């Protein structure tokens, strides 16, 4: 079958190989003369960077998407975004369902891992809901966005732009075609457009909230007490982060970027910058002019990211909550992690700690390497770029196009690890060892 695997390959290994294959196909297509407006070949490293950024739904670019790539190239990028956002397993399952092929137990297991479902039962139904829900959300948003774009574009261009930005926002990719007005401007042109802001932010939030949360809300509607613990944590943490970061951004930029604009635009910009940095990559304010405090806030949001089993990146909100709970537990000299009247497995601390340790370590190594390769770059810009890449965010202070080939390769690796999951990548390449019956003796050490 299409989804069958050789031997006993884990989902982590299959995921790494599948995404790598998709990226290489995208690289080949984007490097062709037909993909560029100039009709010339795009350098391999730049095509690879763009293909990786699109497939890993990041949004970092070395070229302005509208001005460099032809319509064919833009369609290739859009396809990579959709595949990368939903995941290769969901796309493959969609074709199997369309062809009315049987989905076996092995494929169901891979699907379970792909959407981060706890149970294998009902995973095909969940996948169907994901596919239908995705096209409903993207379709409705595309129509609304096309109407908005039609004010400044001809009908064919407005429809294409509506579809492109709808998919890009839902998949939390951050790619845009606003270069027709001003290069690398993202959505700054629409910072005061209420409908545009609401549509894009809604797509980003829905795409980044997680497919499991979708299903839970679909089944139980507004009955919060019946939601799974995972859904409760995700919804509450997401709301908390949006409210707090909106207020903080408003305060940090009150005398800077938000100083000479209307109250409505201040609120919209604050809300946008509270949601987008957690993985989307769109911006309605000039990120190169952010205050140092706002840059730090943005980096923190990029590290936290979205939610597990979604199109988002970062360490994920559940990992963030587990780490906070573990600190509280340690302070209280307790061995239990309690939240919403439930107790979490204590082993989850080990996984959460592994995720954030690998994540931060990878970022630090990348910062050092890029600083060595390009010492002329400002460290704060390197930090911002690195966390944007590994968090699959796509925001930049403007140094992406000035990166050397080696620096671009580092950013490419970070984007890849950020989409697959740093822990998953390590697990994929690590040598599997069988558990031994003989264990080493225990000895205590001092911590803190």
TrEMBL record:
Domain of life according to the entry: Bacteria
The keyword Cell membrane belongs to this UniProt entry's keyword annotation: yes
The record's listing under Pfam families reads: TrkH
Q: How does it sit in the membrane?
A: Multi-pass membrane protein
InterPro entries in the cross-refs:
Cat_transpt, TrkH
Q: Which GO terms describe its molecular function?
A: potassium:chloride symporter activity
One GO cellular component, as annotated: plasma membrane
Membrane-crossing residue ranges in chain numbering: 12-32, 44-63, 75-99, 130-149, 155-175, 195-214, 226-252, 299-328, 348-370, 409-430
Please provide the record's keywords in A-Z order.
Answer: Cell membrane, Ion transport, Membrane, Potassium, Potassium transport, Transmembrane, Transmembrane helix, Transport
Primary location: membrane
- Location of this chain's protein in the cell: Cell membrane
Name of the protein in question = Trk family potassium uptake protein
Q: State the species of origin.
A: Alkalibaculum sporogenes
Taxonomic placement: Bacteria, Bacillati, Bacillota, Clostridia, Eubacteriales
């Amino acid at each position: 079958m299409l989804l069958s695997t050789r031997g006993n390959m884990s989902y982590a290994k299959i995921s790494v190989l599948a995404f790598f294959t998709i990226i290489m196909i995208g690289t080949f297509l984007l490097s062709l003369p037909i993909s560029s407006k100039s009709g010339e070949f795009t350098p391999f490293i730049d095509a690879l960077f763009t293909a990786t950024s699109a497939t890993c739904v990041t949004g970092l670019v070395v070229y302005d998407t509208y001005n460099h790539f032809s319509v064919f190239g833009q369609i290739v990028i859009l396809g990579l975004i959709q595949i990368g956002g939903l995941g290769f397993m969901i796309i493959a399952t969609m074709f199997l369902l369309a062809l009315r092929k049987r989905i076996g137990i092995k494929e169901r297991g891979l699907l379970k891992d792909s959407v981060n479902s706890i149970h294998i039962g009902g995973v095909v139904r969940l996948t169907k809901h994901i596919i239908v829900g995705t096209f409903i959300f993207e379709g409705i948003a595309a129509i609304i966005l096309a109407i908005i774009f039609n004010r400044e574009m001809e009908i064919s261009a407005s429809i294409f732009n509506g579809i492109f930005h709808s998919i890009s926002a839902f998949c939390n990719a951050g790619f845009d075609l606003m270069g027709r007005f001003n290069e690398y401007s993202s959505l700054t042109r629409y910072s005061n457009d209420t409908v545009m802001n609401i549509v894009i932010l809604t797509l980003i939030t829905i795409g980044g909230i997680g497919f499991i949360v979708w299903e839970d809300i679909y089944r139980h509607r507004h009955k919060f007490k019946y939601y799974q613990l995972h859904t409760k944590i995700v919804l509450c943490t997401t709301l908390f982060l949006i409210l707090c970061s909106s207020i903080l951004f408003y305060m940090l930029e009150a005398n800077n970027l938000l100083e000479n604009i209307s109250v409505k635009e201040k609120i919209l910009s604050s809300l946008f910058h509270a949601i987008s940095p957690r993985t989307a990559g769109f911006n309605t304010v000039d990120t190169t002019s952010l205050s140092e405090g706002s840059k730090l806030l943005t980096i923190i949001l990029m590290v936290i990211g979205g939610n597990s089993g979604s199109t988002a990146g970062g360490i994920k909100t559940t990992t963030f909550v587990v780490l906070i709970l573990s600190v509280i537990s340690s302070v209280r000299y307790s061995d239990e992690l309690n939240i919403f009247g439930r107790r979490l497995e204590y082993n989850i601390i080990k996984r959460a700690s592994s995720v954030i340790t690998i994540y931060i370590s990878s970022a630090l190594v990348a910062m050092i390497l890029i600083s060595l390769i390009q010492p002329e770059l400002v460290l704060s810009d390197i930090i911002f770029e690195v966390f944007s890449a590994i968090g699959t965010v796509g925001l930049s202070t403007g140094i992406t196009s000035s990166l050397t080939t080696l620096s671009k390769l580092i950013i490419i690796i970070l984007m890849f690890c950020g989409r697959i999951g740093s822990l998953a990548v390590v697990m994929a390449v690590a040598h599997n060892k069988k558990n031994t019956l003989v264990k080493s003796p225990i000895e205590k050490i001092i911590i803190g």
